[in-house]
Write a structure and sequence with these properties.
The chain is of the alpha/beta class. The chain folds into two domains: about 5-170 and about 210-240, NAD(P)-binding Rossmann-like Domain (Rossmann fold), CATH 3.40.50; about 170-210 and about 245-280 and about 295-315, UDP-galactose 4-epimerase, domain 1. The chain is built from eleven helices and twelve strands. The strands form three sheets. Strands 3-2-1-4-5-6-10 form a seven-stranded parallel beta sheet, with helices on both faces. Strands 7-9-11 form a three-stranded mixed beta sheet. Strands 8-12 form a two-stranded parallel sheet. The structure holds 2-amino-3-ketobutyric acid. 2-amino-3-ketobutyric acid binds near residues 78, 181, 182 and 183.
Length: about 325
């Protein structure tokens, strides 16, 4: 049976997607890969390979060696790091995707590509942003996401590659720490609340954005890849939405569990500018109608679960 390859497996999504795929399809069928080795035994839970996704030879050798039929291509820089290192971001986010799509075309493999709310810009309708609308992002990360969506659709239409994508909102997880995103505040706030009882937020109190708990993001990813292709009108990439809040609203919900928690605001102008260029909320009707998307976590259940799981992970005493 064909195997599954995950690039960027040690990142925020990969850290939870790989175990989920292994429990669904079998540990040996899922090859995790990243630019670096994980700590400990890399093959403890299943096969692991060091892979530079921008190296076409490495990608095609690996796909051939493991007889890969599906690639979840997660290796990318996030928005804030992409603004710091635009050239690296272009190389990895676009160069990597191109190499993956080319390999997929030759190997007749399917591809999952994560797009983002960052694929929209200030001229996009800000509230309940439609599935098909203006996409003129003003961040390099956003430019790579729109270009990626278009390239993925091109490979589907021109070469018949089964490539599908999601426009992820900010993702919240207790497994992997955040890394270089604008929505990272919504993860760091939980660590700081539990450890120190206070947090200095780099976005302003009223910055409203869509967010999603990682278990929903993983279900969406697998749900889309398992969807009947005959029902898909869209491919790259679907709006998906789950939870919508501002830093002040998230802090208020955390305070229901930790009444002494305090939030201050030390706004970072770069990340604030990025967040202000993104939609406040997305309309995910197409995903609901075409493949049955529906989130399970709302703000209260997300916060309660996140605090409980993170407390265990950080080995903090239960309250
Ligand atoms: C980021 O903040 O860069 C990401 C995203 C919204 O794509 N979490």
């Amino acid at each position: 049976m064909k195997r599954i390859l995950v690039t960027g497996a040690l990142g925020q999504i990969g850290s939870e997607l790989v175990p989920d795929l292994r429990s669904r399809y079998g540990a040996d069928r899922v090859v995790a890969s990243d630019i670096r080795l994980p700590p400990g035994d890399p093959d403890a839970e299943g096969p692991f390979e060091v892979l530079d996704a921008t190296n076409a030879r490495q990608v095609s050798d690996l796909v051939r060696r493991y007889d890969v039929g599906t690639i979840y291509h997660l290796a990318a820089l996030l928005s804030a790091t992409s603004e710091e290192k635009p050239h690296v971001a272009w190389e990895l986010n676009m160069g990597g995707l191109y190499k993956i799509l080319e390999t997929a075309r030759q190997a007749r493999a399917a591809v999952f590509f994560p797009s983002s709310i960052a694929a929209f810009g200030p001229s996009t309708p800000r509230r309940r942003t439609p599935q098909d609308t203006v996409q003129r992002p003003t961040t390099l990360y956003g430019v790579t996401k729109v270009a990626g969506e278009l390239l993925a659709d091109y490979y589907a239409a021109r070469f018949g590659v089964d490539v599908r994508g999601l426009r992820f909102p900010g993702l919240i997880s207790y497994t992997a720490p955040p890394g270089g995103g604008t929505t990272d505040y919504a993860v760091t706030i939980f660590y700081e609340a539990l450890r120190h009882g206070r947090y200095a937020c780099f976005l302003s109190a009223d910055t409203r954005l869509d967010m999603m708990y990682m278990p929903d993001a993983i279900r969406a990813t697998v749900g889309l890849m398992e969807a009947d292709p005959a029902r898909l009108v869209h491919r790259n990439a679907f709006n998906i939405a789950a939870v919508n809040f501002t830093p002040a609203e998230l802090a208020a919900e955390i305070r229901r569990h930790l009444p002494d928690f305090r939030i201050d605001y030390e706004v970072d102008p770069v990340r604030q500018r990025i967040a202000d260029s993104w939609p406040e909320s997305l309309d995910d009707t197409a995903a609901r109608e075409e493949w049955g998307w529906a989130p399970r976590y709302d703000l209260p259940t997300l916060v309660a679960d996140m605090l409980e799981k993170l407390r265990e992970r950080l080995r903090l005493p239960a309250r």
